[in-house]
Fold this sequence. Notes:
The protein is α/β, with parallel strands linked by helices and about 400 residues long. The protein is built from 16 helices and twelve strands.
Amino acid sequence: MExxxxxxxxxxxxxxxxxxxxxxxxxxxxRHGADLNDPLWSAKCLLTSxxxxxxxxxxxxxISLGQQICSELNAKENIKMYMDHYxxxxxxxxxxVVHLDYLEAGADIIITASYQATIxxxxxxxxxxxxxxxxxxxxxxxxxxARDIYYERCSKSSSSAVGDDKILKRRPILVAASVxxxxxYLADGSEYRIEGIMFFLFCCVPFSSGIYGDAITLKVLKxxxxxxxxxxxxxxxxxxxxxxxxxxIEAQAYVEILDEENISIPAWFxxxxxxxxxxxxxxxxxxxxxxxxxxxxxxxxGINCTPPRFIHGLISSLSKVTTxxxxxxxxxxxxxxxxxxxxxxxxGVSDDDFVSxxxxxxxxxxxxxxxxxxxxxxxxxxxYRTLSNxxxxxxxxNLVDLKE
Length: 404
Ligand SMILES: C[S+](C)CC[C@H](N)C(=O)O
Ligand SMILES: N[C@@H](CCS)C(=O)O
Ligand SMILES: [Zn+2]
């Protein structure tokens, strides 16, 4: 069996046959006060990292002076102890907080803040190629750091759950490096809405979302994504999450990159739908699924950022054509206004309604369930509880055990 395929099979086995994906990252960052009205959207939070990394070095220096526990004394444990206290200050605090909130809500998989992080997008903001690649890596480092802190909290906790509803249970946790589509880079919501308008110089060209116009060929998409995927694959993430894929040409580009570039970690493919029948561009789900099916490195296929009411039908369609585990992480059902970069509130479903569907989704074939935009740690906690009542959790201390 391919190493990647066995990773997901083993992960699901240890998770009792069903695993929990985290919830919306960007919208949760916003709920904590981040202003993401920016072409980089959630990736804007990564821009703080260069000076924060420098701050981390400064803290080590101060500690070494004051406590004489610098590296020449080889007192790494002491440094680590002090670092634990400073980690909130010296890391990208908001992303760590959000990843940790999801882990403590029961998520088995956390997805990095790289959805709208692209080398091209960072370069437009004046970063060099090297800095842009470092920012991509930073998105994974932040998630890995959150996982480490989480495991440490689990070790310190005497029970698997504490009074304030935090789930502190040592279990296999995967870090999935998000790759948003070319449409996400365009930052006009074109990966999400059906119709859009693109302006080229003085002419106005209507296009179907996800098609991007004739100039954006398979080759252009491969060239656009190649280096980003390579960097994320070498960053320490466990898998790549190709998310909110709006059309089959982009799925094909991803498959070819995975196959041609010797990408060392597996991936999942997740499309979104506005009608419950096709992917956003109007391409058929069956074609999308067959592209994913053709690639051994793709270890799960599914649907994200799609209203919950469409999920049942989409799982039924997918389950007829895929042999891979099916993942679903719907949004709250609210609509997105791409021009204002805002969600239209009160158009979605409550957490109770969302969670009431979960067992049915599992029953008809989903194996990985979480939430996308406008879902919160509360949504994920409710999913965890629902699934915990049904799944048979098998003891496994961490991913290292899992890989062995
Ligand atoms: C899936 S949509 C909500 C993501 C945000 C979009 N790419 C934008 O920049 O507005
Ligand atoms: N992983 C991304 C998906 C956006 S559709 C996020 O949660 O922000
Ligand atoms: Zn979303």
